[in-house]
Every structure is written in structure tokens, then in C-alpha cells.
Amino acid sequence: GRNGSLCLTEVINNPGDAQPTEAETAVWNQVSAVLEEAHGILAELQSYNGAGQEIREAIQNPNDLQLQEKAWNAVCPLVAKLKRFYEFSLRLENALRSLLEALTSPPYAPMQHLEREQALAKQFAEILHFTLSFDELKMTNPAIQNDFSYYRRTISRNRLNNQQLEAENEVNNEMANRMSLFYAEATPMLKTLSNATTKFVSENKTLPIEDTTDCLSTMACVCRVMLETPEYRCRFTNTDTMLFCMRVMVGVIILYDHVHPVGAFAKTSKIDMKGCIKVLKEQPSNSVEGLLNALRYTTRHLNDDSTSKQIRALLQ
């Protein structure tokens, strides 16, 4: 009911206040440890400048061994970072899974869960916020794939020449393949989470899909209402809260679109997609371009025939 959305509004406005109950504590602690690491991961990604210069020089002067070595030494620590980011995505996936289990377990309805388990609802929002922040940074950083493919090419070339390069923490082939797939995605963290959510639903056959999707559509609705309503908007002390809200909204829309049989864009969808997209489009374009791209490229049903032309036009 009405109070439910107010509760969640409080959670988003005063993120520090939600305290876990005893039953929630184990899940809360697991997720909390992951979220603590998330800040460091974002900071590292933000300062990731890549080895473009060194790589270019090495490629232009293939016979200059010193330049080859310089590029290799520049790329190795960067690949170690990329491996850390990838490994973190797996821990994030486990955290999301635990939260989904807690937020959809019977006998409560999704809204009751979000009211009763505010601390977990807040963590769910924070995971989505991290995920979209990570993907926005990744989308605008071509160095990542450039560095990684140079690393892989160098390793395979040296295998052919039987040279063993000394690389601390060398990434083995299977790991490198998984990392390649991960970084090839436009929005790798979001893709990881939507796959995890889909898997969660398919493995929990006894759980009505609605329990998961209602939990998501409720969160999307709360975010949209907060972004639309002047009384709430003036309580956003800073643009960070606005961004937090927009990222969470886009995150839950994308998860919903992957999990719900007909998706978020259908007429029967419980998410007011037109309203959500309009709210985003009212913001300065530099702060929402990444989010609109996520809706364009990471959703499943946007290009279905059943999606209204209006909605598609909004995302053109």
C-alpha cells in the first residue's frame, strides 16, 4: 500500500538509517562486505588510463625489444586490475542472489518484504547503483578492451615462439576467455546481474515469477515517483541522490525485462516505461546518456513487435 512506497522513499533518501533485523543479518553481512569493496573498485576503474601510448609505440616498432618490454610491463598490472574487476562481478552475483532469496521468500508479498526488510532493499538499490556506475565508466573507456586484447595477442605470439613471459598473476587461458566475454559486453556488470536474476527465477520453479518481478516493478515505481514529484525532488539534497535514484530505476527495469515473460515494455508491464524514460530525458543529457544506452542495449524486449512505437521513439 501507500506506506510501502513511503518506506522505500525513506530508504533512498536516508540510506544510512536502515538497520538489519536479526533474520536479515547473515545476508546483510555478506552483501555489506561486497559493497564495501565496491567503492574501491569504482575508484580504480575511474583512474584506469590504459597503456594506449606504450602499446602504440610497441606496435609501430616491432623490432625494438625495449619498447615491447615497456608495453608488456605497462599492460600486466592493468590486466591484474581487470581480473580483479571480473572476479568482483562473480561476488556481486552471489550477493544479488542472496538478496533475491531474502526479498522473495514466502509468505510475504514483495511490498511487505520491501517494508519489513528495508536494510536489504537498500542494499539491493546500492548494488544496482554500483552496477550502473561501473558500466557507465566502462562504456566510455575503450582502453580496457584495447589493453586486454594486446595482452592476449602478446601471450599467444610468445607461445608460438616458445618464449615464456614472466607475468606475475598471469591469467590462464580459460580465465582470459571468460574475461574477454565479460568485457565485450556494453554493460558487463548489468549483464552479469540480469543473467543471475534469470537463473534465480528458473531455478526456483516453486516461486511465482511475479514475486520477483513485483519486487522489481515496485522499486522502479518508487524511483519514478520520487523523480517526478516536486515534493520529493526538493528533498534530494544533491545530484548524487538523483543519480542514485535514476540508476536504481534503470537497473530494476533491466532486470524486470530479463525475468518477466513479456518484459518491461509490453502493455501489460507493471512498469510505466513511458514515465520512466521521460523522467530520464528531463535530466542533463551527460548524466543520463549512459543510462539511456543501458536501456537501449541491455534490455531484452525493446525491439519486440509488441513494444509501442512511442516508447521506441523515446529511446531513438
From TrEMBL:
Its main location: membrane. It comes from the Eukaryota. GO terms for biological process: regulation of actin filament polymerization. The keyword Heme does not apply. GO terms for molecular function: small GTPase binding. InterPro entries: CYRI (IPR039789), CYRIA/CYRIB_Rac1-bd (IPR009828). It holds the Pfam family CYRIA-B_Rac1-bd. The keyword Lipoprotein applies. It is found in: Membrane. This is Protein FAM49A-like. It comes from Astyanax mexicanus (Blind cave fish). The lineage of its organism: Eukaryota, Metazoa, Chordata, Craniata, Vertebrata. The gene is fam49al.
